[in-house]
Every structure is written in C-alpha cells, then in structure tokens.
Write a structure and sequence with these properties.
Helix 2 runs antiparallel to helix 3 and helix 7 packs across helix 9. This protein is an alpha+beta fold and 473 residues long. The C terminus is likely disordered. It folds into three domains: 159 residues, Malonyl-CoA decarboxylase, oligemerization domain (Butyryl-CoA Dehydrogenase, subunit A, domain 3), CATH 1.20.140; 134 residues, Aminopeptidase (3-Layer(aba) Sandwich); 150 residues, Aminopeptidase (3-Layer(aba) Sandwich). It is globular, with a radius of gyration of 27 Å. A five-stranded mixed sheet has the order 1-2-3-4-5, with helices on both faces. A three-stranded antiparallel sheet has the order 6-8-7. The protein contains 20 helices and ten strands.
C-alpha cells in the first residue's frame, strides 16, 4: 500500500476517534484537566467496565488514561495494585462455572463458560482502555511502570501476565511492518534511533549518518500501526567483504565504504529493542529473518549472514570463576594471571595481552558451551536469542570491543553467530528441544579438557615465573 494512502487512512481514523471521544466526553460531562487520585482512577475503571455505549466507553478510557498519566507516582502505583487485587476474576461467576462444568460432565459449552469466568476483569479493562486514541502507547507505558515496581509489589505479577497475554496478540508479527531506515527517514524517527541504540552508542548526527548514509550500510525497523513513529526494534547492518572480528573498524567514521554490490557478507552488529513496556514480547527473530530476505532480494551477491555480538554476561561469570577456589577451569597460576583484568588499560600492554588471550578464549568457550542457567540454557542472553533463532556460534573474538562498555561487560570479548540458511531450522529445533548449542568446530576445540594454567613467560631467553598482577587496592 502506498505510504500516502497509509497516511491518509491514519489521519482519517485519528479524526474519527477524536470526534468519537469528544462526543462521549460531552455525554459523560467530565474533564481530564485535574490529576486523578487512586480512588478516582479505580472509580473510572469500574465505570468503564459497566458501560456498554461505545462513545461513552471511549471517553471514559481517555479520561482514565489521561488521569493516570497526570497522577502522582503513589496514586499510579495504588491504581496498579488495585488492578491486581480488585480487578481479578469474578469469584462468584467462577465458582458457579466450576460447579456447572462438573455437573455437565465437562461439556464443551461448560468449558467455554468456565474459561470466560476465569478471565481476570482487568484483561477486559485493558482492552477497553486500548479503544482510546493513543491507548496502545499509554498501555505500553503502563506496563513499563508495572515492570519497574514488580520487585516491591509482587502482586503485580498477575497484572504483568495479563499485559503479556494481550500484547502478544496485539503485537503479533502480522501487525508489524518492516521499514528501511535511512538518512532520508523523518528526523523524529532518526532522533529515536540515536536515543534507543542500546549496543553501540550513537554520539551525534555525524555518527548516525555514518551508519545510515553509506552504500554499504543498512538499518531496518519494525513498526506497529498504533505506534506509527516508534520503531519497536531495529537492526543495524554492515555490508562487508568478510566476517569481522572487531567493532571499531565497522564504526570508524573515516573508513572507506565499499560498493553494496561488491559485498559478500551482511553483518548484524546492533539489535535494539526500544520499548521497555514490550519486554518479553519477541520481535527479533522475525526481524532478522525478514531482513535476510530483504537483503537477498536486493543484493543476490550477499551470501553470508553473520552477527558481531556483545557478550554481556561474560565478565560477571568470569569473576565468579576467578573467586571460586573450587573452579574446575582455573588453577592457581591462571587465577593469578587473570588478576590483570582488574587493572586499568591492561589491553594496552602487549605482554599482558599475550598472557591473557590463551586463558580467556578457552574460558569463553566454556562459558558458551558449558555454563547453564536453571533452565539448562546458556547463561548469556544474547546467545539464547541467536541460538534460539537457529544461528551457529561461529567464532570467539578476543578484544573485539575495546570500548569502556565492552571492556566492562566482557573484557572486550565479542562473538560471531552465523545464520547458515540451510541449517537454521535444524539448529533451532536442537536448541529448543534439547538445549543443544550449535557451534563451529573451531569454538569447540577451544574447550579446556583440564584446569587452565598460566604458562611461564620468556624473558631474554630465560624462563621466569608466571606473570601476576595484584588487583588495585
């Protein structure tokens, strides 16, 4: 559908909703100018649940959402708590439905009534709130607040479950539109790309231009019709001649671009989710698959699809191994040599780098192939994402990211995941069904068969004690 047609349709629907809301507001005779208290917000919720008229319902939904946005944080939390405690299932109806279900011998009709009675009232309230203009955006922000306060208000877990249940349907892949984002994209969207970038910070407009304008760069985002100028997730792509092992050359403002038709490899080097309120609603697997299809269609010369990915959990895991005397991976000398990781700028010292690399890479292989979370899956969240999508762990890149964030979260380690198009389905099934990690033989060969040790170093042809550096006081 042409963009102009989409814009006219959006403008028409927006005007229709506004007219409907204003008409309902005049019927309801309420003003949204004043902040609402917790009790007022609850009263609006009950009124919205009791009304059948659509115009009045839209007006009430608008009033409630506007009142919630203007309320104090204490009143907002009070309303969210009320969603958990006062807008659950109607217990009288649920009890009656259970009895009918047993009496009927579990008939399909009785089962349907039981299912309907078991649904929390807040699900219907959220559906009705979504009728308001801008309702979807407001509800995404509301769920973000639920996640923020979940630890201190565990009862909100039930509210969060209902948001996830509804958002999974509302943000179904069928409603999402893939759009290329380039230097000609409207400025308000480009500003959000700068703000939302989560992996490699975009420092200014020149930095953004270097990621969007050259012929060998691409950026794609998923958009939802109810959040028209908000990318839900976006991926940045570099078109290259080979598989990169470090991020700095890809982001270098002074690099020499190549012709897109000369490229053989598409590198997904940054994937950013933009809406905290949509956490847990997966778009990334669909995004990568569709971007692969887009690039293949535009550039048949591109045959290899890889990532250059961060390893956000590696430094934390390694710290645990280093401080655990019972570690099966490190002996005393290796543990002492890794003390260099606690010193500033260790990566600038070639001697330290030479000592650390043969210890760090086998540890990285163990981290990806052996370290598991309670569900038996890899500890690293980025690994779970790509492996779950059918990628293969292709290579470990020592000091691939020497930025402050890269050194802090992974001691500079980056990895490549390969999306081998003929293997994706099998890799996905093996990972989902058996927790099996698809990994290249070069990675598997790095796995240590015994505790790692720091080899004695050579100095002027003489063997000396292993290099050790005490951590700073």
């Amino acid at each position: 559908m042409p963009q102009a047609t989409v814009d006219r349709a959006s403008e028409f629907l927006g005007g229709l909703f506004t007219s409907l809301t204003e008409r309902g507001r005049s019927l309801f005779k309420s003003s949204n100018d004043q902040p609402k208290t917790r009790d007022e917000l609850i009263a609006f919720g009950e009124a919205l649940m009791s009304r059948r008229g659509e115009a009045t319902g839209v007006a009430l939904a608008s009033e409630l959402l506007s009142g919630y946005d203007g309320a104090t944080e204490q009143d907002q939390i009070g309303f969210l708590d009320a969603l958990a405690e006062q807008f659950g299932p109607d217990l009288a109806q649920l009890t009656a439905a259970v009895e009918t279900f047993h009496i009927s011998g579990a008939s399909p009709d009785a089962a349907g009534q039981l299912l309907k009675a078991a649904e929390p009232r807040r699900q219907e309230l959220i559906r009705r709130l979504n009728l308001a203009p801008g309702g979807t955006t407001s509800l995404v922000r509301m769920r973000e607040a639920v996640l923020t306060h979940l630890r201190d208000h565990p009862q909100l877990k039930h509210v969060d479950d209902d948001f996830v249940h509804l958002f999974t349907s509302w943000f179904n892949r069928g409603f999402l539109v893939l759009q290329r984002i380039d230097w000609n994209t409207p400025a308000n969207i480009l500003e959000k790309i700068i703000r939302y970038e989560q992996v490699h910070a975009i420092h200014n407009w020149d930095d953004l231009r270097a990621r969007l304008a050259p012929a060998d760069r691409r950026c794609y985002g998923f958009f939802h019709p109810q959040l028209v100028d908000e990318p839900l997730i976006f991926v940045e792509v570099a078109l290259t001649l080979d598989r990169p092992g470090a991020i700095a050359p890809l982001l270098d403002l002074d690099r020499e671009p190549i012709a897109a038709k000369a490229a053989t490899t598409a590198v997904f080097y940054s994937i950013s989710n933009t809406q905290k309120g949509l956490a847990g609603i997966s778009f990334g697997n669909f995004l990568i698959k569709q971007v692969v299809e887009e690039i293949k269609r535009e550039l048949p010369n591109v045959q290899n699809f890889v990532t250059l990915s961060p390893v956000p959990g590696f430094a934390k895991w390694l710290h645990s191994e280093r401080t655990t005397e019972e570690s099966a991976l490190l002996d005393v000398s290796a543990r002492a040599a890794l003390g260099a990781l606690d010193t500033p700028d260790w990566s600038d010292d070639p001697e330290i780098v030479d000592r650390i690399k043969p210890i760090l890479l086998p540890l990285a292989a163990a981290y990806f192939l052996q370290a598991k979370n309670p569900r038996g899956l890899p500890l690293d969240p980025v690994a779970r994402f790509h492996l779950g999508n059918g990628a293969r762990l292709e290579s470990l890149n020592f000091l691939g990211d020497r930025s402050p964030n890269g050194m802090r979260q992974s001691h500079g380690l980056m990895v490549n995941y390969l999306y081998a198009l003929g293997e994706i389905e099998n890799n996905h099934e093996a990972f989902v069904e058996r927790g099996q990690v698809a990994a290249a033989s070069a990675v598997r060969r790095q796995l240590p068969s015994k505790p790692l040790t720091a080899e004695p170093r050579k100095s002027n042809g003489k063997t000396t004690a292993p290099l050790t550096i005490a951590p700073p006081a």
